[in-house]
Amino acid sequence: MKLLYFAWVRQRIGIAEEEVTPPANVATLGDLVEWLKGRGPGYAAAFANPGVIKAAVNQEFSRPDRRLSPGDEIALFPPMTGG
Amino acid sequence: MKLLYFAWVRQRIGIAEEEVTPPANVATLGDLVEWLKGRGPGYAAAFANPGVIKAAVNQEFSRPDRRLSPGDEIALFPPMTGG
Amino acid sequence: MIRVQAEDFDVGDEIDRLTSGRTHIGGIATFLGLVRDMAKGRPVTAMTLEHFPGMTEKELAKIEVEAQERWPLDATLIIHRYGRLAPGDRIVFVAAASAHREAAFEACMFLVDYLKTRAPFWKLEEGAAGAEWVEARESDDLARARWEADSSLAKRVRPA
Amino acid sequence: MIRVQAEDFDVGDEIDRLTSGRTHIGGIATFLGLVRDMAKGRPVTAMTLEHFPGMTEKELAKIEVEAQERWPLDATLIIHRYGRLAPGDRIVFVAAASAHREAAFEACMFLVDYLKTRAPFWKLEEGAAGAEWVEARESDDLARARWEADSSLAKRVRPA
User: Fold this and answer.
1) Distance from CA of C123 to the nearest CA of B (A)
2) In the CATH scheme, what is the homologous superfamily, with its name and number, of domain A2-77?
């Protein structure tokens, strides 16, 4: 699946996007964030407080219990501050 | 005193302004409107329903009980429809 | 700032003038009123705005001071035209600038509501059946009365 | 209409385009957001707006449809810039046109409240102490929640 990072999530991880193939036990968006936290210190810093992280699956806002499919595009980012 | 008329008050009376010297018993704005009604059919039409008429004395909105002085400038007009 | 004029105006220029050099302004809420081509279901071909020169400017200045007392505003502008206008023509422009968008919006609404009922302007509409003076709308008086009854709105957006 | 762009825009031209040939429009309420020179008491020297290309446009289009369902609007416009901006620069412009001024104002406020919390934009502020991501304001979430909880406002201004 394709991951996109924005704002300070992107800055802490150090890249704007990547392709990943998580293990089979990563079924939901919440699982994915927990799995990403273990991938290195940048990821751990980005997702230290998963409660503030927002996500979109295929450009639709989604909650942590959203189930994922291999072809999904998942964006992870902080709360929006537009306007 | 100087009288100014606006909008349909002006149209019904047929003039935009005039100088008048009302009799001594015309003490208030309300008295003035009653007195003006008797000055001709245009005035009678303009002030047929005095309750809808608005007034300003020396450019300040004023109520019918406002007392008048000889040097006052009195404007009489319908409810405002600006904006 | 208050302007009562026969001439048209440029909204972009007016906003630029209001904000230029004032980089603490976060937002500007504006309202632009145009001559509509219909009134009460009948076509309108022209509208003539009459006003009370001198008093109009005084009333608008009072309204502006009142808005600035109620909300933390950096700048306000009221432009109101008079004379004969065609459908689509600009009649009135109100702008309120503030560091806070809530204050900007509420002040702008307040100014427009007051303009409709307290500034000495009168509208004459022309159509196929002749010319007719626009009657005051009861809903406009209600909109204005809301501000008189409820000062809590102003308090809510004013910084503590 | 939705536009997400790096380029600046001209407010007067945008309003003209929105209203030209639509002479049934009575009023246009707008909001223009500018880069402020201060944030939390500290000087801001620049602001960079990041967004999620593709999703941003989709979200703005959804917000616009929602406004048009709630209020009797003739036209709406949302322009939001991205990239690096300086204090005083235009960030966002929202316009709502209607035959009824109340609908225009409320739709404009609704669009701005939603933009602040639902469109995927993020602001990075630069100052003397370096660059810092703007934190979401709780009051913005409350402003948006108001529209979700209370659809009576929309009903009030919708013609019966």
Assistant:
1) 6
2) Beta-grasp domain (3.10.20.30)
User: What is the extent of the structural domain holding D24?
Assistant: 2-157
**Percent of chain A scored above 70 by pLDDT?**
100
Pairwise CA distance, residues C135 & C132, whole Å: 9
Residues B6, C134: C-beta atoms closer than 8 Å? no
Q: Per residue in A30-69, pLDDT tens?
A: 999 999 999 999 999 999 999 999 999 999 999 999 999 9
Nearest of C98, C91, C104, C81 to residue C30 by alpha carbon: C104
> B42 to each of B7, B29, B31, how far by Cα in Å?
14, 19, 18
Q: Where are the domains of chain A?
A: 2-77
Mean pLDDT of A1-23: 98
Residues in CB range of D118: below 8 A, 6 or more apart: A61, A80, D59, D63, D144
Q: What one-character DSSP code corresponds to residue A50?
A: G
CA of residue B70 relative to chain centroid, distance? 14
CB C81 within 8 A of CB C14: no
Model pTM?
A: 0.90
Q: What is the CATH number of the domain that holds C37?
A: 3.90.1170.40
Q: What is the 3-state secondary structure (H, E, C) of chain D?
A: CEEEECCCCCHHHHHHHHHCCCCCCCEEEEEEEECCCEECCEECCEEEEEECCCHHHHHHHHHHHHHHHHCCCCEEEEEEECEEECCCCEEEEEEEEECCHHHHHHHHHHHHHHHHHHCCEEEEEEECCEEEECCCCHHHHHHHHHHHHCCHHHHHHCCC
* 8 Å CB contact between D12 and C13: yes
Q: Is the ipTM of this complex over 0.85?
A: yes
Classify B47 as helix, strand or coil.
Answer: coil
In chain D, residues with a C-beta closer than 8 Å to the C-beta of C30 are 29-32
State how many domains chain C has: 1
Please list every residue in chain A whose beta carbon sits closer than 8 Å to the beta carbon of residue D120: 6, 56, 75, 77, 80, 82
CB C25 within 8 A of CB C97: yes
Report helix, strand or coil for C51.
strand
